[in-house]
């Protein structure tokens, strides 16, 4: 079977990561199908609309999910559809939690009637909770510190419980902090990351930034994160799909294996634009971890990908 005949369904495909994955897989000549209820996403790019099959469906509604999958089969389902981000999630915890869990439950229940259908689930490093300074491996105990992380862990458990007895192969990818873009247009995200805020302020010539946390147990006192470029994440998805052709299950950290502080990211932007930012320090969200970094040993051994060679400039280039 050629790539052209491979049918990939991306749930939540109108979002930031979804549209980058659409772009990536279209160039690889896969047939792309997208489900999104557009509640947390922008509309799809016109080019995508001409080259994919789009369905506005809320996966949290059981009847609609069951009806959609009744006579449809896919080779791979990439399940991105979810409310995400701690701040956005906490605006309505019950609605957000129920949405994530119900969408996953319905998808697993109705979309995997054929054994050939494989699943890649987009989980999060938030499942680990407030972790130590050690790099976190996939076997690390999961103790979510916020409801967003708890919802992702609940979804992981649903997938494990329901698919372990079926013939469907599946992967759980735990995303760390995803940045950058491979699409030819700017994707406007409703949940604004540090990079987006800095970029927008540069455009507006407002050289100021708020940092949540200044006296943490980190090198410079500000939060540290593991950032992975979206181009690497897209490659990981394709390699995971190929891996699932011969393997039942895998859980993989999707990070770079390097940690950068928020202040260091700000300084990197300053160096590029030759302007200084006025930094204001705010209280850190108590549900957030001070520092986190992925152990990507499994990722490198399975897929021969070495992300650690990429520096901070490769992370900020798409925002300038």
Distance between the termini: 41 Å
What is the arithmetic mean of pLDDT?
Answer: 91
Succession of helices and strands: EHEHEHEHHEHEEHEEEHEEHEHH
Cα radius of gyration in angstroms: 19 Å
Number of helices: 11
Globally, the shape reads globular
Lateral arrangement of strands in the main beta sheet: 3-2-1-4-5-6-11
**Low-pLDDT sequence parts:** none
Biggest sheet architecture = 7 strands, parallel
Count of extended strands? 13
Polypeptide structure, described:
The chain is of the alpha/beta class. Helices cover 35% and strands 18% of the residues. It is built from 11 helices and 13 strands. It has helices spanning 16-27, 46-51, 62-69, 86-89, 93-110, 147-163, 194-203, 230-243, 262-273, 297-303, 312-316; strands spanning 7-11, 31-35, 53-55, 76-79, 118-124, 170-175, 177-179, 208-212, 224-225, 227-229, 249-254, 260-261, 278-282. The strands form 4 sheets. Strands 3-2-1-4-5-6-11 form a 7-stranded parallel β-sheet, with helices on both faces. Strands 7-10 form a two-stranded parallel sheet. It has a two-stranded parallel sheet with strand order 8-13. α1 crosses α8 (230-243) and α5 runs parallel beside α6 (147-163). It is globular and about 55 Å long. The chain starts with 6 loop residues before the first strand and ends with a helix. The model has no long low-confidence stretch (mean pLDDT 91).
Put the structure in a nutshell.
With 320 residues, the protein is an alpha/beta fold. 35% of the residues lie in helices and 18% in strands.
Keywords summarizing the entry:
single chain; 320 residues; alpha/beta; seven-stranded parallel β-sheet; two-stranded parallel ribbon; 11 helices; 13 strands; globular
């Amino acid at each position: 079977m050629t790539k052209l005949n491979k049918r990939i369904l991306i749930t939540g495909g109108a979002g930031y990561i979804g549209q980058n994955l659409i772009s990536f897989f279209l160039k690889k000549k896969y047939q792309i199908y997208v489900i999104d209820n557009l509640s947390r996403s922008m509309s799809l790019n016109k080019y995508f609309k001409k080259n994919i099959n789009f369905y506005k469906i809320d996966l949290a509604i059981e009847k609609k999910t069951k009806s959609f999958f009744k006579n449809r089969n896919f080779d791979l389902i990439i399940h991105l559809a979810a409310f995400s981000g701690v701040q956005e999630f906490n605006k309505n915890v019950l609605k957000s939690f129920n949405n994530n869990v119900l969408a996953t439950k319905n998808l697993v229940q109705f979309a995997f009637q054929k054994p050939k259908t494989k699943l890649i689930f987009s989980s999060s490093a938030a499942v680990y909770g407030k972790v130590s300074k050690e790099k976190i491996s996939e076997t690390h105990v999961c103790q979510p510190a916020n409801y967003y992380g708890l919802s992702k862990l609940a979804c992981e458990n649903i997938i494990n419980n329901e698919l372990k007895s079926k013939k469907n192969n599946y992967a759980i990818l735990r995303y760390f902090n995803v940045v950058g873009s491979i699409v030819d247009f700017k994707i406007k995200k409703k949940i604004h990351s540090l990079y987006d805020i800095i970029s927008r302020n540069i455009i507006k010539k407002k050289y100021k930034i708020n940092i949540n946390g200044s006296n943490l147990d980190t090198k410079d006192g500000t939060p540290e994160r593991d950032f992975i470029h979206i181009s690497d994440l897209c490659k990981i998805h394709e390699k995971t799909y190929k891996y699932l052709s011969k393997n039942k299950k895998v859980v993989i950290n999707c990070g770079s294996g390097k940690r950068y502080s928020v202040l260091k990211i700000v300084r990197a932007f300053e160096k590029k634009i030759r302007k200084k930012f006025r930094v204001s320090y705010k209280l850190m969200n108590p549900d957030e971890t001070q520092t986190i970094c992925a152990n990507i040993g499994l990722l490198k051994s399975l897929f021969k990908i070495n992300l650690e060679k990429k520096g901070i400039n490769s992370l900020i280039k798409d925002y300038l």
